[in-house]
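User: I've been going back and forth on whether these two constructs are worth ordering. Before I decide, could you fold them both?

Assistant: Sure. I'll take them in the order you sent them. The first construct and its structure tokens:
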Amino acid sequence: LFHPCERMLSVRRCALKSAAAAASRLVSNAPSSAVSTRFFSTPAESKNNICDKIGFVGAGNMAKAIMGGMIRNGVQQPENVMVYDISSDQVDSCIAAFPGVKRATTLHALVKDADVVMLGVKPQNVEAVLRPLNAEVEKLGPLKDGVILTSIIAGVPIEAFLEYTNIKHVVRAMPNTPVTVEQGCTVWCSTPNFPAEKKELISRLFSSIGDEINMEDERFLDMATAISGSGPAYVFLTMEAMIDAGVHMGFPRHIAERLVMNTLLGTCLYAIQSGEHVSKLRNDITSPGGTTASAIYNLERGGFRTTVSDAVWAAYRRSLELGGKDSNVGPGRNNILPTFWQKDMKDDTS
């Protein structure tokens, strides 16, 4: 018998091996409408930088994931990356993980000549971090012309950053935790009249950590937070329930983990590659009177579909609340469904 840690590593190696093999087939075989060809990142040979300097305010897990993806894929060299955090341990961790990344001793030192400032602090700390910046700029000198402030903070709208700073070009983005393995999905939007070359720069940056989707209307960001931003937690909870059921039936935990992880991984890749509606794929494996039909019946009787939907709506409402917006939306609320997207949807189908 293997040690539990060795079993877990074996599960991960099997999953990653399966993902790597499937990814190479997926990119060549998938319908163009089903998945971006950038979805599965591969190390880039190019060593060109997308800009002279990218500065990270906050060195948490998401910032490190983005930093690592763009460095490993040759989008930005570590010597052209700077990081600032009130926690010196967090900065030390970044510098140790990515040799060449520079430490900023003050916020102004980080932003003064940066082309992109990546903001990854807690929502409640945004004002405290950014408001003093204006005073520092007046005292120590202006920022670089055309600097882009890019926020990866949940719920905080673009208008807040325009209020707290004098930066005119702002991007609001919602990545998710799979960016850690360069398989994330980042939805982002920008201030009006955002230059095309700056859109390309941001697109290349987020493409280095998975798929990226640019939406014209900022209101989609709160929706994306509820689906792709919080979505990995819903999947993890489902995985946990399935693994525990397998153990309850008698499987060793490491075998149950392997079965569940590879089932979810393979199912997702199969759905992307097939290009079929997921309800058809589910129906295809639901034989009359069979085991799957019995399981689906119990899931539906337990309100599985509605529970998932309610969870997504709850996350959406919370994202609205974090941004100080009206959260009285969704089923059973005064505002049943937002309809702002209908007239503009033709512009957001990419």
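The second construct, handled the same way:
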Amino acid sequence: MAEPLQAYEEPVGPAPASSSKNQRLKQSLSQMREKLKAKVPHLHLKTSLKRSHHEPAHAGGEAGEEDDGLNTPQSSGRGGGGHRHHPHSGGHHSATRKKTLKPLKKSRLSSDMNDWGLTPDEESECLDQFVQELSDEPGVRYADVADEKKLLRFLKARNFNLDKAREMYLKHLKWREAWDVDNILFEEFPEREQLLQYFPQGYHMCDRQGRPIYIQYLGGINIHKILSFTDEETIVKLFIQEYEKFAHYKLPACSEAQGKLIETSLNIMDVKGISLKMLTKESQRIMKKVTGFTQDNYPEMMGNCIIINAPYIFKVIFNIVKPMLSARTQSKIKVVGTRYHETLLEYADASCLPERLGGTSKHTIFDDVGPWSELAPSITSKRQLDLYQSQQLSRWSTKPGFGVNRSLAQQVELSELHTIPSSQAFDSDDEGEDGGGSKGGETEYFTSR
């Protein structure tokens, strides 16, 4: 047998006295291994002789003699030797090596993991299992598990704990049935405009990421006035309707406009004018109902929250509560005082903020201006909504072939909806005879920068 060791005998610094002895021992081991391999092809041996610290990283018997199809991520990277493959090893050794290096472990070492420490493959596997478990539950329909993005939000809300997520989602389905949420989008509430006067909140264009901007002026809330013309149940129904519009109109329209999936909003909470006098028993009861159904039934839909005009006492209270929040939730919330303008501009362009918040937009939160402005009025029936939802599920699904085949008549009906292609520019210069454009000069609904 040839002695390939001669090719690696370039001295690096003064060689130790035991170097030649080690070389001979390694050569002898190499020869023994070759003889054993010839007799027992499936036997793999690995020398445990440690390399001298004076020896070059690539020194040692035949190329790859310490690997021989047994490389692990740790051994292959040791000493900077890189991948070394035995020149005489057959396909069997290569196959053995591929089985040893598990792709899943390699991907987990990468940065391609979500905020919960899962790789895309692990997240998809967890979602598939979640769908299967829900499908096995009595009374759960196909439509209840068709929206994988919605199911993922419930998994995220329970840190991908399948048992807790399943319990949460089944309660959510019962809640939807109890409140007839599937039909609430088409209910008429004559109290709506009056309620907004005493509970000022609404959506106004989009931020730099294309997310709808939700604004609340908490200092203007007057629950006592609201209860003078309506009841608590109607208040809750109105807020459910707003969330359904957000989920089924606003987010899909923003996704169409941006050409990418938009799943969350930017929330701006103006606490100017808030006082302890506002914290009556009835106001606390109603706020608890509203925030309660929000957390339980529309989880993981807030991207960021900026609280502005916060007085000193508010900051003190928030700093007390902050340690109780997860690091992920803390990263979403910013509390600033009266000098909030620069903070808002980090998230949204001035043209997308109302003048009341230091922006340049002439619109207010009551105008409900955004990429969804024409979409919502064009959906007038449950059938149209179902068709539009199936279109969105098919477009944004991560699973190939997911979706519903539609007849020609259904496709025509869908084409009549005022959806927004991602390449469309939003301004009032293209206003038609029907007055469909925005009023008051050129308006951009979002700024992508």
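Notes on the second construct follow. Residues 1-13, 40-106, 400-415, 420-449 have pLDDT under 50 and may be disordered. Residues 433 and 439 are 13 Å apart (CA to CA).
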